[in-house]
């Protein structure tokens, strides 16, 4: 069966490494903070000026002054710090963040990402996404493999306005884990109960399949 949003977040959490600074984008990526593997210490950074972000607060214990970039209430771990957005973006542009996790509307087989605008719909702006995709060396996308109509979101070429070019390294969708290579999407893992054929049918872009594809292990 395909993963839900929590399953995607849990699988991405397995990519975290001890000592990393990690930026979590809006949407599914914010859930990753709730599923840090035991035995590792990571620092979550939010571009509105927060380092040391913890999991979402328990209902009734929210602090309206503590929010992430998506304006959701969050917690701050012991030793966490607050600072202005200028310092936050200096940290991002200076490549002091080891991993960025973003949502996406579309990803192209060459690593292009579109995640900020649908033409004709009002948006406030790109926000920090442009800086993140331009500066991060390791970008993982958390997304649904298809849209609500069943059309693929992993494409030969993005149709929506781009956020970044050739920057995505890995995708964790509700169907699969894929690496973006110079030759296309390389299938690494499939969601429990999902067949390789289902993933092929849901992927418009070039899909590379080598050998037996193992199922994801979600703890």
Automatic annotation (TrEMBL):
This protein's name: CoA transferase subunit B
Protein source organism: Aureibaculum flavum
Keywords on record: Transferase
Transmembrane segments: none
Family: Belongs to the 3-oxoacid CoA-transferase subunit B family.
Entries under SMART domains matching the protein: CoA_trans
Pfam families xrefs: CoA_trans (PF01144)
Domain of life assignment: Bacteria
GO MF term list: transferase activity
């Amino acid at each position: 069966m395909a993963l839900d949003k929590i399953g995607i977040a849990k699988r991405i959490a397995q990519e975290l490494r001890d000592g990393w600074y990690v930026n979590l984008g809006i949407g599914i990526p914010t859930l990753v903070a709730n599923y840090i593997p035991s035995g590792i210490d990571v620092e979550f950074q939010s571009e509105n000026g927060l380092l040391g972000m913890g999991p979402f607060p328990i209902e009734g214990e929210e602090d309206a002054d503590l929010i992430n970039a998506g304006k959701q209430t969050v917690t701050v771990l012991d030793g966490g710090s607050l600072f202005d957005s200028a310092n936050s973006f200096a940290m991002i542009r200076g490549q002091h963040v080891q991993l960025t996790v973003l949502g996406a509307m579309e990803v192209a087989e060459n690593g292009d990402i579109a995640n900020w605008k649908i033409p004709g719909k009002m948006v406030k702006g790109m926000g920090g996404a442009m800086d993140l995709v331009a500066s991060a060396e390791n970008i993982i996308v958390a997304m649904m493999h298809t849209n609500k109509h069943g059309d693929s979101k992993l494409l030969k070429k993005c149709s929506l306005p781009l956020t970044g070019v050739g920057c995505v390294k890995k995708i964790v969708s509700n169907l699969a884990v894929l690496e973006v290579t110079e030759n296309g999407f390389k299938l690494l893992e499939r969601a429990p109960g999902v067949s390789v054929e289902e993933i092929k049918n849901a992927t418009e872009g070039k899909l590379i399949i080598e050998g037996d594809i193992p199922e994801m292990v979600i703890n």
